[in-house]
Amino acid sequence: MDLLHIIYEMIELRSFSNLWYWIALAVLWSTASNRILGVPYDMVQRAQRNGGQAERDLEDMVRVNVNRLLYISEVSGPWLVALSCFVMSGLAVLGFVFLMEIAQAVFLLVFPMSVVGLISFLTARRIAQEGATGGELRRRLAFCRLYVQVVGVISIVVTAFWGMYQNLTIGHFNRRAETD
User: Fold this and answer.
1) Beta partners for 36?
2) Coil, strand, or helix at residue 40?
3) What would the pLDDT profile of 37-47 be if each residue is shown by its tens digit?
4) Greatest distance between any 2 Cα atoms in the chain
5) What value, to the nearest 5°, has the Cα angle with vertex 129 and ends 124 and 135?
6) Alpha-carbon torsion angle 100, 101, 103, 104, nearest 10
7) Whole-angstrom distance, CA of residue 110 vs CA of residue 99
């Protein structure tokens, strides 16, 4: 065995057998479920416990982020939807028709995050329409977080099963059998 072969065996370059992909997946969903509409969830809990200034800080931060999200959707919403559909359909075709593993891996990261984006947009719009404050605002943010976590669990399970399937069918075991 030469040095390059040893390095290649140590640093696997395929997506689903790469430790960095799974670390990125965990960080992505941890961040997504911790920051609801751009607001750290500990602010929601602090506002519920302490009230007063913590409640006003939460309402101000949510108001700024809701207005920002609604402005972006108003100004460039159709273009963002079209571009994201184009990218996701391209990744799906490259990944699942032409069997490019990196496209599959990126699709399994991007598609669920687009669902999270839709959930966030709908929550922001509802908060703005209702003018939610106080307990109602915290309840909206809690439900948004719950929905994001449900999408995250489903995404992680699907990605894990698809990754295991890929690793077993075209992974290390089949490659070793071919070289023996």
Assistant:
1) 39
2) strand
3) 999 999 999 99
4) 70
5) 75
6) 120
7) 17
